[in-house]
């Protein structure tokens, strides 16, 4: 039975992805800026730069975050939206996720909001976990049998 | 084209099986291709065939089999398969 006031429901969604760090190191070495430019934003590359070169473990974690975010969308065979998912390092040092373009649109269409990301790496592997709240509108039936859809996606 | 694709897969695909003996329609993801490896395969294919994959072709389906890659390369280079 549906409660009269249950026009929407919000659930927590999560997705993870794991990346082999040496594969990223090989890609950087083998394809250089073509690889970096195709997959990462300039901000992401800058965030992974050190005086001695790029931290490939951090790049790998960011690739994992992109894949995890795309998993959250549950869109079959989405065309390469790597730049549409961006990991940004905040001044405090923690990562946040910014969505752009088609991925932003798809997330909005699916009621996904309040995305968060956590990155970790150790030796050969990097992992990312992305969480989001998903608010879904329910069809409610009035006493006259008419149906309506209410969304409170933007309400607080 | 088929042989070159297999060579690229052997070098960059991180497959768990021998790329040379794969069936043209065998699922490459089931053979061990990861999302990240598909990126390096894509870049290596661009080098090998002097093409650039447009974004619309950069899907999982494009790299799902040797036959699918060959079709995508033909589309990317505007040459009939």
Helix tally of chain B equals 3
Q: What's the order of the H and E elements of chain B?
A: HHH
The CATH homologous superfamily name of chain B equals ACP-like
CATH architecture of chain B: Orthogonal Bundle
Number of helices of chain A: 4
Low-confidence stretches of chain B: none
Uncertain runs of chain A are 145-156
- Strand order within the widest sheet of chain A? 1-7-6
Strand percentage of chain A = 35-45%
The structure class of chain A reads: alpha+beta
Q: Roughly how much helix do the residues of chain B carry, as a percent range?
A: 40-55%
Q: Tell me the number of structural domains of chain A.
A: 1
Strand tally of chain B is 0
Alpha-beta classification of chain B = mainly alpha
Q: Please give the radius of gyration of chain B in angstroms.
A: 11 Å
Overview of the molecule:
- The complex is a heterodimer of chains A (156) and B (81).
- With 156 residues, chain A is α+β, with helices and mostly antiparallel strands.
- Chain A has a single domain, classed as Ribosomal Protein L22, Chain A (Alpha-Beta Complex), CATH 3.90.470.20.
- Chain A has helices at 21-39, 42-47, 56-73, 101-109, and strands at residues 8-20, 49-50, 53-54, 85-89, 95-99, 112-122, 125-137, 139-141, 147-149.
- A three-stranded antiparallel beta sheet of chain A has the order 1-7-6. In chain A, strands 2-3 form a two-stranded antiparallel ribbon. In chain A, strands 4-5 form a two-stranded antiparallel ribbon.
- The longest helix of chain A has 19 residues, at 21-39.
- Chain B is mostly helical.
- Chain B has one domain (2-76): ACP-like (Non-ribosomal Peptide Synthetase Peptidyl Carrier Protein, Chain A, Orthogonal Bundle).
- In chain B, helix 1 crosses helix 2.
- Chain B is globular.
- At the A-B interface, strand 1 and helix 1 of A face helix 2 of B.
